[in-house]
Amino acid sequence: MITITDVTKSYGDETVLGPVTGQIAKGGVTSLVGPNGAGKSTLMTIIGRLLEPSEGSVTVGGLDVQAAKSRDLAQMMSILRQENHITARLTVRELVAFGRFPHSQGRLTDEDHRHVDLALDFLGLGPLAERFLDQLSGGQRQRAFVAMVLAQDTEYVLLDEPLNNLDMKHAVLMMRRLRDAADELGKTIVIIVHDINVAAAYSDRIIAMRDGTIAYSGTAAEIMRSDILSEVFDTPIEVHELAGRPIAVFDPMAQSVTHDAVRTDEESAVASV
Amino acid sequence: MIPTTTRRILLTATVVGVGALVVASLLVGGYDISLLGLLTDPAQREMFLISRVPRTLALVFAAVAMSISGVIMQMITQNKFVEPTTAGTAQWAGLGLLVGLILIPGASPIVKMVLACLFAFVGTGIFLAVLRRLASRSSIIVPLVGIMLGAVVGAATTYLANSFGLLQSLASWRSGGFSNIVRGFYEPLWIVSIIAVLAFVVADRFTVAGLGKDLATNAGVNYDRIVLLGVTMVALATGVTTVVVGFIPFLGLVVPNLVSMVLGDDLRKNLPWVAVVGVGLLLACDLIGRLIVAPMEIPASVVMGAIGAALFIAIVLRQRRSVYA
User: Where residue A100 falls among pLDDT bands split at 50, 70, 90?
Assistant: First the structure.
C-alpha cells in the first residue's frame, strides 16, 4: 500500500501540489489522470523519492520514502519519469540489465539474466537487444526504459506516461503487458496516462487530479461520468457507451482556451452550486 | 553498429599497436639504446633504467590518469565533452601548484601535490555547482562553462605567477612534457594505478550515475556520493599528473569518445580500452614530438593539443550528424 499524508510541494510562494492525503491500495492498475499542471507528475516523483516534498510524508509498503535506504526502496519500488534523455551510449540489453542493479550491484547472476531476458521478451525487444539506444526510434527507446523498470522486478511500479511516443498498436500492447504484470505477477502498477479512455479500459482505479489536489478517485465506472470529467479537465466532455465500454468524447467546438482568471470565476461558481 | 568481427580486429590491432609504441618509446631517444646493447652494455642498461623506463612509465600513468578522469567526468556530468582540461580541473590544479610555490618556497613535491589535488577538487566542485544552477545543460553549453571557468583561473594563475616572478615555472608546467622525467621524479604517478583499479571496481556505479540522477536513484544508488567519489578520484589523478608532468589537453575528451563509438559506454566493458587507447595516443604524440625535430623535442602536450583539437572537431561534427539525422 502507498500512503500519502498531507503532502505539499511549493516553489517559493507557489504551491504546485497539495495538500494531498490518500492511499493507493496494493495490487492492480491505478491511473492518475488530469489536465496539464494538475500535479500528477509531481505527486508521482515524490512517491518515488525523486523529489522531496515541502511538507508531509509518503510510505510505500511500510517504508518512509524519505527516510528508508535507497537500495531497500529500489528492491521494492521502481519509478520511470516521463523524459529520459541519456547521453551514455548503451545497448538495450545493457540498459535493461541496470534494472537489476538494486539486486546484484552490477554482478549479474543467472537469476538476473533470466529477468533481463524476460523483460526484453515481455516488451518485444529481443531482436533489438544488442542495438545501441541512439540507434532506436523514440517508441523503441521508451519500451527499453519500461523493460529496464520491469526487470527491476519490484512490487510497486510507477510509470509517468509510459505510452509516450508509442503508436496505437504498441500503446495497447504496453497496457496489456502492464495489466498482465498486475494480474499474473501481483504487481501494483501506478501510471500517469493522458488518454482517459485508455485509463478507463485498463485500470482498476482512477485518481483524477486538478489544481494540485485529488479531485475524485474511484473505479473506472465511477469516474467515467460526463460531469466529473468536464469539471476535472475544464472542458465539455460527454461519456457514451460504446461496445460495452464507457468512452469519453470531447466537444470539437469547445472554447479552446480558458484563461486562469476565468477559471477562478468558474471554480467559485462550481463551489456555490 | 560496428560488426563483431570488425570490432575484434580493431581491438586486436589496438593492443598490438600500443605494445609496439611502448617498445618504441623505450628505444627512441638521444642516447642510442638497442635491445642487444641492453643485454651486453651496463652503461646502456643504466641509462635505460634512469631515463627511458621512467619516461615511458610516466607517459603510461599520465595517459591513464587523464583518460580515466575524462570518462569519469563525462559520466557524472552526462556530457561527452567534459574532461579535466575543459572543466577547469587541470587549471585549478595548476593554480594550487603555483600557490604552493609562492607560500612555501622550496616545498617538497608531496606538499605541492596535496595543494594541487585540493585545488582541483574545489575547482571541480565549483564547476559542478555552477552546472546545477544552469538552466540549459545542452551538450555544448556545459563544456563552454568549464572552459570559461578554466580560462578565468588560468588568467589568475598567470597574474599571480607574473607578480611573483614565477612565469617561467608556469610556462614549463603549461607545456606538459616528458623530457625531464627521470628516476626519482615520476614515482608519485604510481598513485594513478590505484585510482585506475578503484575506477574499475566501481565502474558500474559510474555507469549508473551516467544514466542521470533520477535513474540512478531508481537503481538504489546514492547519486551524490558517486559524484563525490568521482570528483575525488579525478582531482587526485589530475593533481598528481599536473605536478609531475603538466597540462595534457584533450586526451580525456578524445579517448573516451573514440572508444564509445566502438564499444559504447558501459564502463565495466570499456574502461580497460579507454586506458589502453589513451596510453597509445599519448605515446604516439610523445614519439612524434621527439622525432620530428630530433635531437630537440616538442612537448607531447603540444602535439596532443594539435591532434586532439582535430579529433575533437571530428567528433563534434559526427555527433551533430547523428543527432539531426
Answer: very high
